[in-house]
Amino acid sequence: EDRRSLALHRAIAKRLREDPHVVLTQARQSLATMTARQPEVSHLLREWSVLLARPVEALLPLLTDPDPWARELRHVTPFAGVLTAAERAEVYRGFADDEGRAA
After folding, report:
1. Percent with pLDDT over 70 in the chain
2. What residues contact residue 51 under an 8 Å CB cut-off, 6+ apart?
3. What is the pTM of this model?
4. Roughly what angle, to the nearest 10 degrees, separates helices 20-37 and 2-18?
5. Distance, CA of 102 to CA of 52 (rounded, Å)
């Protein structure tokens, strides 16, 4: 699951580089909704709030960092919805193919 999330966030990072204003606007809106609905993870959502205020160049490495803290943050990602269903399916297919070759 962590490797699949990392693959998904690589695609999100690519989209963020391509269109930072749109992606960050969407992530901030999503974060506001998540903050209202998920108080049990408020410490992680506060961290995302700080991160989303930083320059894109500072945010990008976190999206693909294998570090445990970055992994935990990705579990409550405000970037849900940035990729279309078709784009997510493509990432998942690529991930499954890579996992199959590694096995």
Report:
1. 99
2. 58, 59, 62, 73
3. 0.86
4. 130
5. 34
Q: Are 54 and 16 in contact (CB under 8 A)?
A: no
Question: Does position 2 have pLDDT exceeding 90, yes or no?
Answer: no
Q: Under a CB-based contact definition with an 8 Å cutoff, are residues 13 and 64 in contact? A: yes
Helix segments in 19-80, DSSP class H: 20-37, 42-52, 56-63, 68-74
Segment 78-81 long-range contacts (CB within 8 Å, at least 24 positions apart) = 78/27, 78/28, 78/30, 78/31, 78/34, 78/45, 78/48, 78/52, 79/9, 79/12, 79/16, 79/23, 79/26, 79/27, 79/30, 80/30, 81/26, 81/30
Entry field: residues in the chain: 103
* 98: nearest Cα among 30, 6, 31: 6
The residue written with tokens 């269903």 in the block is 85
